[in-house]
């Protein structure tokens, strides 16, 4: 397959799964015209309007219809356009999709993929920039995925479509044009619940995911110049999350920084930090540190937006504070 | 837009035999609800239960026109729809009691009563939530190449929620075979829905979205059956969605804990006189059916529900292990 973009990878994954399984279909605003970011380009031509379904701006019914469709034997892939818009479908996600199997005593499954692009991107401001992954991890019933590379976007989207659970699938808007190698075999998937060691190192573990992986990579480059070796664990899957991979890395480095783009307060980083502290507290040589956004709505002006981002300098300051 | 009179004008006169079957279904619903009411008073139903006493003709008249492979979605007041679609009353009673062998293993209770084996896709604790689900189920059945009509029950309160507008519009633009049934019992919880609904009401709203809408006396099972039969036929022929505004009355309060006596006494009295059981019974007697035969049908229903009550009351609680099953395949359940 060679090198393709993160966006092309998701399009490829959906096309491959739709060829494999005639019950897979996609619905959302503008998807028949390629999708808001071009992540559905060409799919309507191949699969027709019954399987690539453009919809009204009706998030609640996009999601609710997908729940009904999933319960009676199809595998809908829901496109919610921006993660912020998903909030218009919160009942359908949380009270319906995540609960139907349980509250109906296992009589049904809701195999739906809920795509909601996340993150800060080009001055998108307060209602088009959020990273709300922690909300969904909190909710029993959901699988939550946040790939950072083209290969993972393809492999995890395929796994998500094959999964019988409702899957929250968060692609980062700033990563659409990111290029990377993907495997040739169309049958190759990325297993849900496994982290990826994005970079090996010995002095400090950075656990991160989604767009923040890029920040971690740049910080690791900068740290190398100062003689500090950072190991990056890209979780990819936030629920379930790969505790074993994180524990193994922290056992080695004995220092942990959790880095994410979402608001730091009650972010998923808090769960990772608490779990590592509870489990490996006596192995740590420095307290766990968390890096995330301030608890403010995301502003429009580029310099203000930048203040919400965790920067390489922030990571380097933390490295220093940890006494490396 | 067709009206009830025009839509059923060519329909054959309903047979006494058919009404007898509908009367039997209604009797079973009435008896089930009365047993549930008794059980709630005796503390055997620990959660909320919303009774459909007085609304039996809507459930029986609609579901009597559906096949086993057709689907329904329902509301928090969903016992009647579930019985009419063919679920086991005993399994339902166990569910209300939170006991082993309930339709959902005792994990859902009254508000989440469901029986997927008979096409009952679930009652719902969220008003109007079944509307998009019904639309999506119809869309999926079409994608799968299966012929199925979906009846979507909701109350008068649901017309003021967003999914009502979204879901009807959705069914219209994709021409889905969804029979929207607005079961108007006049009250949204404890508030008169008329006071909370702008414009001319449910029919006008449905018509504004291009969905043909038909007002009907929801306490007259013969009328409901005739209209539903006609509309289901139209939908099976590819006619897209239809809407029924079935005017009925909730003889009890919002939940079993609410006696409902805060409503005007004359209103209650009027509707008790216009009881759907009485109307069906009178039709049958006028058609030559012996009253004793109808009494026997009612008695049989009461006996069935009394048995269901006794079995449910004697049934064990669900195994503790069931609390953590059917959460999710990957990543569940967990305490962290």
What does this molecule look like?
The complex is a heterodimer of chains A (324) and B (336). Chain A is an alpha/beta fold. Chain A has two domains: 2-182, Thiamin diphosphate (ThDP)-binding fold, Pyr/PP domains (Rossmann fold, 3-Layer(aba) Sandwich); 196-321, Rossmann fold. In chain A, 36% of the residues lie in helices and 19% in strands. Chain A is built from twelve helices and 14 strands. In chain A, the strands form three sheets. In chain A, strands 3-2-4-5-7-6-12 form a seven-stranded mixed β-sheet, sandwiched between helices. In chain A, helix 7 (150-162) links the parallel strand 6 (143-145) and strand 7. Chain A is globular, with a radius of gyration of 19 Å. The model of chain A has no long low-confidence stretch (mean pLDDT 97). Chain B has 336 residues and is an alpha/beta fold. Chain B has a single domain (12-311), classed as 3-Layer(aba) Sandwich (Rossmann fold). Chain B is built from twelve helices and seven strands. Chain B has helices at residues 4-8, 16-41, 56-63, 79-85, 89-97, 130-143, 162-173, 202-208, 221-236, 265-273, 276-286, 291-314; strands spanning 71-73, 150-155, 178-184, 187-188, 191-192, 213-217, 242-247. In chain B, strand 6 (213-217), helix 9 (221-236) and strand 7 (242-247) form a beta-alpha-beta unit. Chain B starts with a helix and ends in a 22-residue tail after the last helix. The interface between A and B is large, with 50 and 53 residues.
């Amino acid at each position: 397959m060679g090198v393709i973009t993160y966006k092309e990878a998701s399009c490829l994954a959906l096309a491959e799964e739709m060829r494999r399984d005639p019950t897979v279909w996609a619905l959302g605003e503008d998807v028949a015209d390629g999708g808001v970011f071009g992540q559905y380009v060409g799919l309507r031509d191949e699969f027709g309007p019954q399987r690539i379904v453009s919809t009204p701006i009706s998030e609640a019914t996009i999601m609710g219809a997908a729940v009904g469709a999933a319960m009676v034997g199809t595998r809908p892939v829901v496109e919610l356009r921006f993660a912020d818009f998903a909030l218009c479908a919160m009942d359908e996600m949380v009270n319906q999709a995540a609960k139907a199997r349980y509250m109906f005593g296992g009589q049904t499954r809701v195999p739906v993929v809920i795509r909601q692009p996340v993150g800060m991107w080009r001055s998108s401001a307060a209602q088009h920039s959020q990273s709300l992954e922690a909300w969904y991890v909190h909710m029993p019933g959901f699988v939550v995925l946040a790939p950072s590379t083209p290969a993972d976007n393809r492999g995890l989207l395929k796994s998500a479509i094959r999964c019988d659970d409702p899957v929250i699938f968060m692609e980062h808007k700033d990563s659409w044009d990111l290029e990377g190698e993907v495997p040739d075999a169309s049958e190759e998937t990325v297993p849900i619940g496994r982290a990826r060691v994005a970079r090996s190192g010995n002095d400090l573990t950075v656990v991160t995911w989604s767009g923040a992986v890029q920040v971690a990579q740049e910080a690791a480059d900068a740290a190398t110049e100062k003689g500090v070796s950072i190991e990056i664990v890209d979780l990819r899957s936030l629920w379930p999350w790969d505790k074993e991979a994180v524990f193994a890395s922290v056992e080695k480095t004995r220092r942990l920084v959790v880095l994410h783009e979402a608001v730091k307060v009650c972010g998923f980083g808090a769960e990772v930090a608490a779990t590592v502290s509870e489990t490996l507290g006596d192995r740590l040589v420095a307290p766990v540190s968390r890096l995330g956004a301030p608890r403010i709505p995301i502003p429009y002006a580029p310099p203000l937006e930048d203040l919400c981002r965790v920067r390489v300098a922030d990571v380097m300051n933390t490295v220093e504070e940890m006494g490396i | 837009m067709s009206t009830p009179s025009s839509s059923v004008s060519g329909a054959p006169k309903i047979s006494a035999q058919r009404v007898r079957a509908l009367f039997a279904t209604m009797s079973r619903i009435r008896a089930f609800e009365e047993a549930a009411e008794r059980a709630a008073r005796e503390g055997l139903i620990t959660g909320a239960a919303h009774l459909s006493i007085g609304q039996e003709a809507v459930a029986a008249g609609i579901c009597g026109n559906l096949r086993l492979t057709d689907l329904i979605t329902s509301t928090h007041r969903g016992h009647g729809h579930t019985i009419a679609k063919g679920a086991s009353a005993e399994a339902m009673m166990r569910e209300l009691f939170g006991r082993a062998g309930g339709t959902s293993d005792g994990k859902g209770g009254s508000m989440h009563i469901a029986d997927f084996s008979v096409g009952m896709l679930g009652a719902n604790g969220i008003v109007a939530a079944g509307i998009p689900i019904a639309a999506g189920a119809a869309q999926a059945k079409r994608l799968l190449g299966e012929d199925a009509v979906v009846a979507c029950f909701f109350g008068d309160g649901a017309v003021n929620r967003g999914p009502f507008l979204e879901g009807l519009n959705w069914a219209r633009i994709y021409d889905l075979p969804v029979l929207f049934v607005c079961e108007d019992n006049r009250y949204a919880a404890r508030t008169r829905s008329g006071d909370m609904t702008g414009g001319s009401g449910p029919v006008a709203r449905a018509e504004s979205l291009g969905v043909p809408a038909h007002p009907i006396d929801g306490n007259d099972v013969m009328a409901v059956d005739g209209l539903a039969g006609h509309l289901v036929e139209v939908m099976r022929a590819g006619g897209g969605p239809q809407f029924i505004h079935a005017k009925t009355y909730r003889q009890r309060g919002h939940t079993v804990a609410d006696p409902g006596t805060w409503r005007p006494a004359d209103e209650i009295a009027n509707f008790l006189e216009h009881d759907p059981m009485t109307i069906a019974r009178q039709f049958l007697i006028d058609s030559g059916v012996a009253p004793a035969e109808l009494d026997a049908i009612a008695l049989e229903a009461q006996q069935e529900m009394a048995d269901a009550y006794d079995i449910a009351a004697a049934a064990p609680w669900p195994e503790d292990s069931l609390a953590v099953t059917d959460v999710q395949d990957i990543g569940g359940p967990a305490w962290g």
